[in-house]
Amino acid sequence: MDYIEETGGAAPEIRAEREFMELCRAKLLRMRGEAEAMLDRGAAEGDAVVDKYFNHALREFRKKTVADLSGFDDAPLFFGRLDYAAGEVFDDRPETADPDGTGLAHTRTEDSDLLYVGRRGVRDADGEPVVIDWRASLSRAFYEASPLEPMGVRVRRRYGFDQAGLLSAFEDEPIEGAPVSPGASRLVTREIERPRQGPMRDIVATIQPEQMRLVRAPLDETVCIQGAPGTGKTAVGLHRLAYLLFAERERLRKEGGVAVIGPNSAFLAYIHNVLPALGEVEVVQLTIDDLTGPGLEVSRVDDARAARVKGGPAMAEVLRRHLWARIGEPDEEIEVRHQQRIWRVPVSEQAEELAAVLERGTTYGAGRELYAQRLANLVLRRMERASGTSTTLTQLSKNRGIGQALRRLWPVVDPGRLVFELLTDPVQLAGVAAGVLSAEDQRAIVVAPRPRSMRSMPWSTLDLALVDEVAGLLGRPVRLGHVVVDEAQDLSPMHLRAIARRLAGACTVLGDLAQATSPSAVRGWPEVLTRLNRPDGAIEVLDRGYRVPAEVLGFAARLLPHLAPDLTGPTSFRPGEDSLRVTGTGVRERTPAIVEACESALAGEGSVCVLSADADVPALHRELVAAALAHTVLGEEVPNPERLTLAPVSLAKGLEYDTVVVVEPARIVAAEPRGLQRLYVALTRAVSRLHVIHAEPLPEPLREAVPAAGVVVRSVS
Ligand SMILES: Nc1ncnc2c1ncn2[C@@H]1O[C@H](COP(=O)(O)OP(=O)(O)OP(=O)(O)O)[C@@H](O)[C@H]1O
Fold first, then answer.
1. Is the ipTM of this complex over 0.95?
2. For the domain that residue 540 is a member of, what is the CATH number?
3. CB within 6 Å of ligand 1 — which residues?
4. Which of 53, 475, 494, 692 has the fewest CB atoms lying closer than 10 Å?
């Protein structure tokens, strides 16, 4: 592969590419200017009254166009180029070398058609494309063309940029007629190894073929991606949404828009920039708790047994019974006073109507309305028979007498209160759980000591899923056109039901069974798909890791046979020599070793994280403060986080740091039933270096056999 880097003086070809980039920028600014002017002028809008909706849609479309073309004032406008034989892509060719400085000649030379690929499509004044959007079908070849399947491409060019975003290098990869394995691209490797700081960034310029295939899966296809740590599942899910919005924006909007569901707010903060950087600002990003229990705060973690029971599908039946047990039995006449007369509905007729409504199988809320109407109808018919009437069914169904009867027979319920009552009252629970939950299971889920009121209820994440289940029985929730569910290996059947209720179309499910730490989690992907009501979804595997160097991945993979024996160990894109260090210390030397590890990491570039069992975080915090190491404790919201983070391991899922210091693996394992899985998560967060520091013996699998090649095991005691 030819690689050219600007070394001062700028090589002529780099100069030419920079000039072309500036030309593209001028064209982009012109496109934006035109869209802004049309928006200001209200161009092509119809009559303000007659065409109100059309005008609104047109304005929204133009606002979106302006937003799409904004934010690129200094950013690189393309990151790649494909070289095809002349006439392969473009039909027409400019007659002169560069008519009116349009730059078209740059893309159509005598013997080549050059296709520039960027984050946005750019056109010239005649509508001719000069840069192709990465999501357009023409761009596919940039990601997928290979010597085995050249797709007409002769050479793929990738561009490198300096810190200021100035084009400073390119690399040409021959495709047609080239040897099958050209070796790793320097620019891709450089991009993957670039030190991380702050939130996740997009990967449009370097998406790999196995990832792109999933990004571009059709909208109607539910895809479930099992992938080892750092294989790019999250990145693929987010880029897939950007792609789907490009390809099917109108349909997705009509079907309710799109959302990303992640495990917690630290994770959302980490990914929140990726979609806006890709120009997608309309995607809702929320945690599973935001989805199921808006307004309720989680302050408790269920023990393993309670979690298994509450997360299990049997709870749906318990809640169904609990809700419908609110329906009363008619036992007194309804009196409706209307215009100085009293109309009565006998008990038997109320009961008949009630049975008829229950038979319909509506939601609780819709059933209530229907029952009110049917009671009103009984009265209305009596009135009509007697003397005719001027009142309507709707007016009558709001009559006080009918309202009182409804409150008795079909009361309004609050989902939170209903779940609160169920979980704090063993008698009520026993009444509706008989034959569904064993006595021990019932005991396991009763909250003790009993909270004094609903306001003092310590909700758990699974309680919120129960609240949502009840809400779903009351009425249908707002639906979404497409949902990306990340870290799905941890979701319980009840959580998956909550997502399924909202799915108008397909979804993208991301996760890694070896990282499943929740005792209530579904155990396999086929079951996840079934619970989502998408049993025909495709299960795909990603096994090439981009985050974790091979040495570290090999070390962590020693846990795999104990976690998910059916999963094959991942391979790593990067060897990462000298990336692993394991330090055994005496108890007193542990803190100095941690401090030294942090200081030495902070002396280099990038982010640093100390990961420990949750219970050890307060003590470590004090120790880092005493050592004057400025740091941010993950989970606390601060405007300007430090380069050093101290993180409880329970929040680390999905995150990554250049250097990770894992403290006392054995304590991480001992802290919870699926502690080994938690440790696997901790050991796979490092991009460049992992340093394990322990005074207690390492967990068995990590002690096994001889250390992997390159592992530095050092004892400081
Ligand atoms: N094609 C790529 N080009 C550049 N960077 C990539 C590519 N694929 C993945 N990465 C980077 O690798 C890292 C891991 O990606 P990501 O977080 O999406 O992995 P994951 O499979 O979701 O990991 P985990 O299982 O730990 O949550 C990220 O920094 C991401 O930007």
1. yes
2. 3.40.50.300
3. 191-192, 200, 203, 206-208, 211, 227, 229-235, 512, 546-547, 654, 656, 684
4. 53
